[in-house]
């Protein structure tokens, strides 16, 4: 998105995405001309997938190129703080919605001059439900004369199918989309006219605003998958599909505490009833709901017979929200039920759904994690579903990773029940357990042990080939299927790449995967090991120019303009959507800017003058960086930022609270400023 003053003209908006062996490199280019007789600020604002790493940004102004430089976050923090304290844009990367992050920066362009912005980001596409999805968000904020989206997909295994979906794939725009598929390559072109950019379903006089989603899968002719080698690196994609399903044992642990009231509990019941109907007759299952107490449907696992499923659905329909949240007892009971039901040739799964922190029983998060890990003992994965944004997602993520699972956020929306069902379908059909990826002659490997492999997913391993000796490099996969040991070997499925593009591509895939997994490992370790893991993730981020939670990109600008510093948020650091609020600002104040909380959360403020840090408040809310405001306001606030016990604050010059001398900023739950301490 380009925010432009009247008479500014955006002449070019191009998105070019190249996918090679599921690794996508996308370049967004925008050229804008200032048609006015005076200098004007032009803001570049685009949205990219959360799973991606920004790897390059540059601006071209009047023949001069200004490149972004990736630095350790600590080194860039001082520049960021100075920019915010002066009331200037800090160049933010922030979470937007479920799957996107928003990048923005701005620059002053002289009269009758042009600026070209170019942003590059990279991501490894994940296979879910038997397909890959490449999401491209187009939001130029005005009709553009030269608007192009070009996607080129190269897959040595061959492309099985390709589809174009998303909000921009509509009947009104059908003739703007061209799709071509030829064996190992596919192309998608999206070239809407200026009129189409104004009249389509998700368009207006401000141009397009929507997604193109390229959906595809590759051929899977061999059970071993495909493995690429180049420049001393390899990448192995393993996703066998011609295997019998493994019967499963699954326990659902459902939070029914008071905070689940309303739509959350209704959608949970709907999803649970649907999921129960999808269980196969050779599956065994258990169902627990909990608040401060546990409520068993049955105290032991039972077979998914028709009668048992109908009884369980009746139990699910009667789940009611009430009481506090005893996560520790509930998860331990789910683990006990699975441990009490060992069954050869089956796969066990524990699924927790909760929307908040533990409030009764054992409430120390570290103790709960230790208890759960001790109960599971590595025998089965724990999947944690965090409902909404009040949940402590980092707590759930760490607990899942400690037990070979993953955490997933369920967004509080009208389709939350579909999100729950969609996650369950990802793990509904185990095909292999105890998967071990072996690479003789390989080193610096990414994760090689996986507790389970599910139909429709994919295991990806990358590494380096010792001494680049392909002759001694021998890959193999060992796994269990229905109590039988299977060995998958490389039977002439290897492709050796020698082209310069592939040589450049392969190490970056390895680095991307390694950094992602090191960031996860950082959550699980402490002391010297944590320091070592963090240092290695930082070293690779800097070497490959990735903007990660450990690095920032410093965006240089022409002399006299503030340097922007771009941070990548972690999951859970999503800023509130301020667009719905009518926030008061002075007539002559600068436009709204974004800032960061010290916890990483973002807030929006009016003109920023100086920055302070408040201590952790008495209600145990996280400390945040607030900012002084020019304006004078009167307002009400309450404990934990408005839980209902409101008190009055009058604000005098500088925006300080008279009662506590605390500075004031806008908060997401209010249409007026609030005090961070009270």
TrEMBL record:
Name the Pfam families for this protein.
VIT, VWA
| Alphabetical UniProt keywords | Glycoprotein, Protease inhibitor, Secreted, Serine protease inhibitor, Signal
Q: Which domain of life is it from?
A: Eukaryota
The main location class comes to secreted
The residues forming a coiled coil are none
User: A GO molecular function for this record?
Assistant: serine-type endopeptidase inhibitor activity
- Limits of the VIT domain: 1-123
Q: List, for all copies, the residue spans of the domain called VWFA.
A: 249-427
GO annotation, cellular component aspect? extracellular region
Give the PROSITE patterns listed for this entry. VIT, VWFA
Xref: SUPFAM superfamilies: vWA-like
Localization (cell):
Secreted
The text of the family note is: Belongs to the ITIH family.
What's the protein name?
Inter-alpha-trypsin inhibitor heavy chain 3b, tandem duplicate 2
Species of origin reads Sparus aurata (Gilthead sea bream)
């Amino acid at each position: 998105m380009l925010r432009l003053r009247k008479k500014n003209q955006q002449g070019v908006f191009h998105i070019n995405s190249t996918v090679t062996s599921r690794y996508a490199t996308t370049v967004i280019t925008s050229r804008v001309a200032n048609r006015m007789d005076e200098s004007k600020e032009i803001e570049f604002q685009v949205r990219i997938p959360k799973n991606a790493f920004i790897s390059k940004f540059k601006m071209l102004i009047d023949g001069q190129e200004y490149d972004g430089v990736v630095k350790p976050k600590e080194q860039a923090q001082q520049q960021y703080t100075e920019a915010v304290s002066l009331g200037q844009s800090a160049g933010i990367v922030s979470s937007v919605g479920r799957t996107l992050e928003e990048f923005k920066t701005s620059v002053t362009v002289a009269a009758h001059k042009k600026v070209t912005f170019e942003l590059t980001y990279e991501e490894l596409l994940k296979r879910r439900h038997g397909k890959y999805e490449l999401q491209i968000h187009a939001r130029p904020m005005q009709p553009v004369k030269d608007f192009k989206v070009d996607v080129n997909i190269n897959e040595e295994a061959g492309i099985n199918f390709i589809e174009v979906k998303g909000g921009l794939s509509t009947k009104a725009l059908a003739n703007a989309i061209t799709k071509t598929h030829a064996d190992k390559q596919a192309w998608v072109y999206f070239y809407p006219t200026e009129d189409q950019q104004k009249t389509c379903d998700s368009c207006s006089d401000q141009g397009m605003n929507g997604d193109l989603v390229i959906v595809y899968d590759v051929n899977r002719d061999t059970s071993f998958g495909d493995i690429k080698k180049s420049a001393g690196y390899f990448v192995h994609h393993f996703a066998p599909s011609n295997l019998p399903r493994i019967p499963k044992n699954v326990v659902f642990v459902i939070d029914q505490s008071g905070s689940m009231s309303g739509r959350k509990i209704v959608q949970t019941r709907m999803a649970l009833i649907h999921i129960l109907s999808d269980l196969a007759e050779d599956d065994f299952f258990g169902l627990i709901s909990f608040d401060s107490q546990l409520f068993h449907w049955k105290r032991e696992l039972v077979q998914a017979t028709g009668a048992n499923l109908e009884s369980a659905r009746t139990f699910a329909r009667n789940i009611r929200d009430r009481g506090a949240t005893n996560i520790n007892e509930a998860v331990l009971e789910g683990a006990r039920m699975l441990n009490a039901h060992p069954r050869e040739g089956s796969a066990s799964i524990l699924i927790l759904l909760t929307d908040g922190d533990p409030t009764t029983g054992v409430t120390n998060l570290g103790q709960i994690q230790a208890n759960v890990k001790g109960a599971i003992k590595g025998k089965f994965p724990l999947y944690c579903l965090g409902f909404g944004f009040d949940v402590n997602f980092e707590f759930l993520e760490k607990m899942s990773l400690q037990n070979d699972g993953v955490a997933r956020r369920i967004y509080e929306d009208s389709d939350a029940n579909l999100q729950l069902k969609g996650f369950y379908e990802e793990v509904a059909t185990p095909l292999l357990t105890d998967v071990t990826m072996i690479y003789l002659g390989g080193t610096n490997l990414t994760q090689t042990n996986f507790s389970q492999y599910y139909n429709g997913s994919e295991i990806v391993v990358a590494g380096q080939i010792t001494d680049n000796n392909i002759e001694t490099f021998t890959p193999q996969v060992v796994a269990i299927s229905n109590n039988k040991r299977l060995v998958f070997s490389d039977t002439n499925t290897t492709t050796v790449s020698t082209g310069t593009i592939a040589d450049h591509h392969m190490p970056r895939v390895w680095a991307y995967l390694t950094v992602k997994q090191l960031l996860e490992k950082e959550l699980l370790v402490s002391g010297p090991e944590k320091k070592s893991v963090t240092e290695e993730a930082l070293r690779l981020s800097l070497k490959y120019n990735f903007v990660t939670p450990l690095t920032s990109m410093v965006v240089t600008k022409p002399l006299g303009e503030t340097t922007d510093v771009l941070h990548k948020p972690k999951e859970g650091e999503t800023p509130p959507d301020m667009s719905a609020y009518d926030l008061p600002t002075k007539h002559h104040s600068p436009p709204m800017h974004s800032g960061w909380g010290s916890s990483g959360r973002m807030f929006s403020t009016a003109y920023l003058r100086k920055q302070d840090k408040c201590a952790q408040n008495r209600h145990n809310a996280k400390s945040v960086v607030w900012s002084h405001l020019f304006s004078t306001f009167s307002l009400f606030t309450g404990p934990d930022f408005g839980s209902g016990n409101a008190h009055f604050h009058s604000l005098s010059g500088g925006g300080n609270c008279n009662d506590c001398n605390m500075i004031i900023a806008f908060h997401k739950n209010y249409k007026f400023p609030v005090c961070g301490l009270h």
